[in-house]
Amino acid sequence: MYTYMLFQAAMSSRRVVVFPSSAELGPVLARLVCDRAQTALNAGRSQFTLGLSGGSLVSLLSKELPAQPGLDCSKWVVGFCDERVVPFDDPESTYGLYKNQLFSKINIPENSILAIDHTLPVEECAEDYARKLNQVSSNEDVPVFDVLLLGMGPDGHTCSLFPNHPLLQETQKTIAPISDSPKPPPCRVTMTLPVVNAARCVVFVSTGGSKAPVLKEILEGGEGPALPAARVAPSQGELLWLVDEPAAASLALQVERPGPGARL
Length: 264
Prior knowledge:
CATH class: Alpha Beta
CATH architecture: 3-Layer(aba) Sandwich
Structural class: alpha/beta
CATH topology: Rossmann fold
Number of helices: 7
Pfam families: Glucosamine_iso
Shape: globular
Radius of gyration: 17 Å
Order of helices and strands: HEHEHEEHHEEEHEHE
Keywords: Hydrolase
Domain Glucosamine/galactosamine-6-phosphate isomerase: 22-241
Largest sheet: 6 strands, parallel
GO molecular function: 6-phosphogluconolactonase activity
Pathway: Carbohydrate degradation; pentose phosphate pathway; D-ribulose 5-phosphate from D-glucose 6-phosphate (oxidative stage): step 2/3
């Protein structure tokens, strides 16, 4: 019953938007982030809060965000949806990748980038990072991000929330440690589902034909326990899936196919 309710909630609020390729998807994603930033600041909030994920999103955002006309990130605060507990110069460090490829190209203040302390043991690292993310919305029990950008693995995992892992049931912690990740490196910290589902806007980006089977299961429902990405259903916010044609190849549901220059 719980799985069915999650699936119905996600269906009621989500948009599935399909692009011919990531080349067409990237500029729309960048415009979406900038538009939501302007919306947040126009609403009187002092900052725009953005949660980043790694993988292909790093190169996509690093190419498209700096190309946005009049980009001003001076009131942005950036956190990470999950992070590997490795030094920042390690190729597995999501912060390190963004620092090298994106942050040097935009005018975001260094103290507005919330990074983990990778020198701490994983449990302490998670507690320390949870304290940092509480700066995002100090009046809330759970940090409320304006936008979270998520990826999805071929197994249906998102953040560092993996299928059948006990962290899927976590309701108290906002940031949780994981020391037995099925994907290396084993030690990570991750946002939990309460934080993800508190966001004002959650955007999944999924590309490539290898994602087609699991994307169909997540978006159209499948037997058995809901995969981690299927458990993302923002209670008050938007849920958008931005995918390319190869990833969407098996979908039977109704989707949007915007034209060039579209805004979402």
